Amino acid sequence: MERSALRLVPRFNRLSTSLMFVFLIVLLIPLLATALYGQMFARDVLSRNAVERSLSQLSLQAESIVSSLRQAQGDALYLSSLRSLSNLNQQTEPDETERWRMETARDFLVFLSSRPMYRALRYLDETGMEVVAAQSDGRTASIVETLHNRSSTDYFHYTIQILPGGVYVSSFGYDDTGVEKAPLLTYAMRANDGGVVVIDLHAGWLLRNLPVSSGTDQWAIMDQNQDYLVYPDSFDPSQIAEDLSFMLTSESGTHETVDTVYVYTTIHPTVNLPDYAWVMYRITPKAVLYAELTQFYVAAGGFALVGIIVAIVLAYFMSHRLTKPLAHLEEMATAFGRDGILPELPEKLPRDEIGSLTRTFCDMAHELERQRRQEHRLIEQLINAQEEERKLIAYDLHDGLIQQMVGARLYLTNCRESCPIDAFNIQNGIQRGCDALTEAIVEGRRIIEGLRPAVLDDLGLIAAIEEVANTHAQLAGWELHMELQHLPNEPEKSVSVTLFRILQEALNNALKHAHARTMNIHLHNGNGIGIRIKDDGAGFDPATITNEGRGLGMKTMQERAALLGGICEIVSRPGHGTLINVWVPETVTQRGVRTPNVTWVLE
Question: Could you tell me the residue range of the domain that residue 254 belongs to?
């Protein structure tokens, strides 16, 4: 698992990935900066144009309404100057007054016929009493026979107080006397003779220039009493009343909410009342008003996506082209480090820093291989020298000290036999001396055999391991379990001697200190040769042994393995036995054999 993780991590740290990121940054920063600047500039321009266009359309509608009001004012002025109305005001005789009243009523009828947007025409005297009145339903006009006193109406109250020629425009209301309710606007003007000319104007006529189909837009005119004239009829301004208070504080402008845009302007229906104004506004969903902006976003997003894809492709090919020589260099380094394959200079070597690095690496690899071979020869010479020294010591011990000990035992035996029979104490002492010499001779011969095991030279590593294991098992009384894999070829002499000496040291330590009942020995032949030695003895704490300055045998085993590029790991706990794992390359002439990534567990 750890090796897999190590193989995955470099994918995110490769030079090609870094270069690709650098190229992407270099390519995308100008692209994104330009796109962001263009987006902000276009967004501002398009949104401003959309709002200005909507506000311009609103202003045109407002001008149309003002023009309609001026037409109504001109009509009121015309009606106040009718000859029949002037004669009516000059008569004092009832008969003449009635004649001119009817004449004025007929003039009103004719005028209503030409102005279908007017619902009623009235002329009131100074007391508010209707003098002449005519009405229309938009199709036919008629004279009002029953006249009423209008002195209590707001329009009469305000109009009678202004100067002749002054105009009053009422709030929006409804005429519910007809078949259908009609939004009305009362337009009153003070005549020169003191009377009041009143025109009931169909308020919907003010919005006659709006589109036939409102689409998603909503239009409204709001007076200062917050009475509304709306288009279309399904629009209910009370639902957005909380958003309209700002419109009464400025002449014109815009206001945006989460999903809608308000554009509004102010209309002054009459010049003689400068403080009296209407607010005309238009409500448009942002999705509709900024449709061009949305289209721009879609187009810009598409271009940006294409640009990013092109940038990624260019970055990939550029980084791949630049890192291809490095990848080849990495392959050569991996092959050299893992399999010992000496790198050769490529036929097409780049004439840059990477080419120089490749040439330097090849030279270094050949130099390392030369030094490694030299080091191998020195290691073999050292091990052979140690073994020769052991052989000489073994010969010296066998031919010198052992022979003298055998001779001493012979002399003692002869002396014991020549002593009188009644000299029991003397014979007993001589016997103990003979027994001690016999044990010393056996131990000396065992040491000589350990110094130079002949079976290692004669039969090989497997046989030597079996012999030394069986010998120690007999001496210690162990229950021995061995699992030794077959070796296709006998390892090099240095490898065989190192493994045997480590096993020998481990068994000697177990014999002296472990007090074990069972001993398990496993030899496995894979990517190198490994030996696993496990006992169920007393165990120990390796850290404590090291701190106390003991453990020379452990250090010797580890140094022997390290000398050949291998490992010797010792795992032990008091009361849980000892586990020793040894691994060395099968042959040190095979360059780059890696230590297996194994975690030893003491069961």
Answer: 210-289
- The span from the CA of 170 to the CA of 157, in Å, is 11
Query: Are both 187 and 235 inside the same structural domain?
Result: no
Could you give the CA distance from residue 444 to residue 225 in angstroms, rounded to a whole number? Answer: 127
CA distances from residue 330 to 14, 214, 317, 337 in whole angstroms, order as listed: 11, 71, 19, 10
Long-range contacts of 379-382 (CB under 8 A, 24+ apart): 379/494, 379/563, 379/564, 379/588, 380/492, 380/493, 380/494, 382/563
Domain count along the chain: 4
Residue with tokens 């004449």: 103
Classified as helix, coil or strand, 197 is strand
Q: Is the peptide bond before 285 cis (omega within 30 degrees of 0)?
A: no
pLDDT tens profile 58-105 = 888 888 888 888 888 888 888 888 888 888 888 778 888 888 888 988
pTM reported for the whole predicted model: 0.48
Helix axis angle, 552-563 to 493-509, nearest 10°: 160
E strands, 377-506, where? 479-484
Residue 168 has phi, psi (to 5 degrees) of -125, 135
Answer for the pair 513, 546: CB distance below 8 angstroms, yes or no.
no
Give SS3 for 102.
Answer: helix
Neighbouring C-beta atoms of residue 411, cutoff 10 Å: 13
Pairing between strand 479-484 and 518-526? parallel
Whether residue 254 contacts residue 263, with contact meaning beta carbons closer than 8 Å, is answered with yes
Last residue within a domain, chosen from 206, 224, 242: 206
